[in-house]
Amino acid sequence: MTSIRTLTRRTALVVATATAALALAACGGDGSGSGHGGHGSSSTGGGASASAEATNGAHNAQDVAFAQGMIPHHQQALEMARLAAERAGSAEVKDLATRIEKAQDPEIRTMTGWLKSWGEEVPKAMPGMDHSAHGGMSGMMSPQDMDKLEKASGKTFDTLFLTMMVEHHEGAVEMATTEKDKGAYGPAKATAEDIVTAQNAEISEMNKLLGKD
Predict the structure, then answer these.
(1) pLDDT tier, 15 (very low <50, low <70, confident <90, very high otherwise)
(2) Who's near 146: CB < 8 A, 6+ residues apart?
(3) What number is the average pLDDT over the span 31-60?
(4) What is the number of other CB atoms lying within 10 angstroms of the CB of residue 169?
(5) Averaging pLDDT over each range in 1-5, 17-21, 64-68, which range is the top one?
(6) Residue 191, Cα to own-chain centre: how many angstroms?
(7) CA distance 125 to 51
(8) Are 126 and 75 in contact (CB under 8 A)?
(9) In Å, what is the CA distance from 183 to each residue of 47, 108, 135?
(10) Residues 157, 148: Cα–Cα separation, whole Å
């Protein structure tokens, strides 16, 4: 009888101990979860800071020069492309101009956002700029070139547009290649890569339309 009582007492003790251990584990789990949640919040905050730092700090002077140069460069391309809607003679030129506008307009907005986030000056729209006044902006048309294009129409416009846009694109590719080689900001280098790929393809297309390929 004594043995049975002893065994019963020991069993009850084991059960009580196990129950207490489970309770402590659950408690510890809650505390750990809560602590992890707190750590997670802190980590998220750190991630946000890191993200902000990447946007605002992980860039160099070349990234700034690229955005400040490419914005007006793109703006002039858009000015040229918009003339094609009414002045171009061929459907191929009108289609190309539409694609140029669709590609470059969003890139202007993106680069404007970078400059604002970096606290840098955003170039104003300067149509018809003479690239001689902007040494780093290769391929820019002079005011005289733009005036000639604005007055042309039909086949004459098509030839002028394609000839000028080839030169303009070659300048953009040169600027974008420099960004790829010397820039630090990932999104800017990726945009530069896109510009090189897209505009080299359009240069080939335009040369074919001009009968050069």
Answers:
(1) very low
(2) 76, 79, 80, 127, 128
(3) 45
(4) 22
(5) 64-68
(6) 5
(7) 30
(8) yes
(9) 23, 18, 18
(10) 9
Taking the C-alpha atoms of residue 63 and residue 192, their distance in angstroms, rounded to an integer, is: 10
Radius of gyration of the chain (CA): 32
The predicted pLDDT at position 101 comes to 95
pLDDT for the residue numbered 213: 67
Report helix, strand or coil for 135. coil
**C-alpha separations of 36 from 21, 25, 40, 42, 154 in Å:** 22, 16, 6, 9, 69
Which burial class, exposed, middle or buried, applies to 143 when counting CB atoms under 10 A from its CB (0-12, 13-18, 19+)?
Answer: exposed
Q: How far apart are the C-alpha atoms of 4 and 173, rounded to whole Å?
A: 92
Tokens of 205: 């297309």
- Three-state secondary structure call for residue 88: strand
CB neighbours of residue 62 within 10 Å: 18
Residues 6+ apart with CB under 8 A from 17: none
- When pLDDT is averaged across residues 141-151 and rounded to a whole number, the result is 95
| Rounded distance between C-alpha atoms, residue 170 and residue 61, angstroms | 22
Portion of the chain with pLDDT greater than 70, in percent: 67
Global pTM value = 0.70
